[in-house]
Amino acid sequence: MRYQRMLVPALALVLVMVPAISARAQGEEVPRGPTFAARALQALIDGIQFGVIIAITSVGLSLIFGTIHLINFAHGEFVTIGATFALFLNVSAAGPGWHLIPAAIAAVAFGALLGGAVERGIWRPLRARGTGLINMFIVTIGLSLLLRHVVLVLYGTRPASYAQYDIQSAIDLGPAGITPRDLTVTLLAVLVLLAVAALLQKTRIGTAVRAVSANRDLAEASGIDVQRVVLFVWMLAGGLAALGGVFFGLVEIVTWDMGFKLLLLMFAGVILGGLGSAYGAMVGSLVIGVVAQMSTLWFPVDLQYAWALLVLIVVLLVRPQGILGRAERVG
Q: Measured between alpha carbons, how far is 312 from 211 in angstroms, rounded to an integer?
C-alpha cells in the first residue's frame, strides 16, 4: 500500500513531463507564458485606461467640493444611473433599442439634468436654510442609499453588457495588446478631460468656477452669480459621472452597485490630487488607476484597491494637501 501511494504522484509527474520532453526531442518549442516585461506593459496600459475612467467620474466630485465644500457621497450613484440608463436605451426589451452611441449621449444629458435637479431641489434649499456641512453630508448618504435601491428595483441584480462592442480581438502592440473598444474609450476619456481643462481655463463660466472655488465671498462681491455657477458645476458633474459610468460599464460590466464600488477610488483620486482641484483629481485618479493595476504583478487581484489606497496614505504623509493641492494655514 505504501508503494502504491508513492507510485501515484510519480506517474502524474511523468505524464506532465513527457509532452515537454517529446517536444524538445522533436525540435519543437515548448510554449511559455508572457515575460514580466510584457505583463508589466499590459498592466500599465490597463492602469492608464482605468485611471482616466476614474478621472472622468471624480472631476465633478472635486469641483462640487471646491465650490460648496460638500462631500457628495451620492456621486457614485450618478455613475450607476448613467450606465444603467444607457443600458435601458440600448438593450432593454422595454427600451427603444438605440445604438450605444446615441444611448450614451442621452445618458450624459440625463445625468446632467439629474445633477441640476438635485442641486435645485435639495442642496440649494438646504443651503438657504443654513444647514451645516455635516448635516448635508448625512443627507448625501441617505440620497445615495435611496438612488442605489431605486436602481436595484428598476434594474435588478443581474449583470449585463451593452449590445455593441462586447467581444473584440485585441490589437497587437508588441508584447501587449488592447481591444479597439478599450483604446477608443481611453482616447475619448483623455479628450473629455482635455475639454474640461480647456473649459475651465478658456471660457467665462470656467473662470467663474475657478473664482468661486478660490474664494466664494470675493467672487460673489465681484458680481459673479454664484448660484448659477454652482448649478453649472452640478450639471457638469452629473454629465461626467454618467459618461464615466458608460465607459466603465463598456470595458467591464454594468451592475446595480458599480458606482458605489468605484466611489472609494474616486475619493482616493480626489484626495490624492488635492481637494477642490479639478486637475489634481485628474492626476490623482491616474495614479490610483496605474498603481491598482500594476500591483497585480506581485500581489493578488483582490488586493489591488488596497495598494492604491496605501499609496494615498504614503503621499499624504509627505504632502498632506495632495499632489496639486494648496497648503493652508490652520488658525
A: 28
Residue 210 Cα distances to 58, 115, 203, 215, angstroms: 17, 19, 11, 9
Are 242 and 78 in contact by the 8 Å Cβ rule? The answer is: yes
Calpha distance 169→147 (Å, rounded): 36
pLDDT along the chain (331 residues), means of 10: 42 41 47 72 88 92 90 92 93 87 95 94 90 90 92 88 81 78 92 94 91 86 89 94 94 89 88 84 90 84 78 80 64 41
CB-based contacts of 275: which residues, under 8 Å, 6+ apart? Answer: 62, 65, 66, 322, 325
Instruction: Name the pTM for this structure.
Output: 0.84
DSSP class of residue 160 equals B
Given a contact cutoff of 8 angstroms between Cβ atoms, the answer to whether 233 and 242 are in contact is no
As a whole number of angstroms, the distance between CA 187 and CA 320 comes to: 32
From 268, 192, 246, select the one nearest 79 (Cα to Cα): 246
